[in-house]
Amino acid sequence: MDSSDFGKEVLDDLALMASGEASKAGVYGDPGAEEIIWWSKKLSVEPEVILNETAKRLAQGYVDGELDWEFCDWVANKFLFSGVTELSLKNTSEKQLWWQVFLEFDASEISPSPEPALTTELRSLLRGR
Question: How many domains does the chain contain in total?
Answer without folding.
Answer: 1
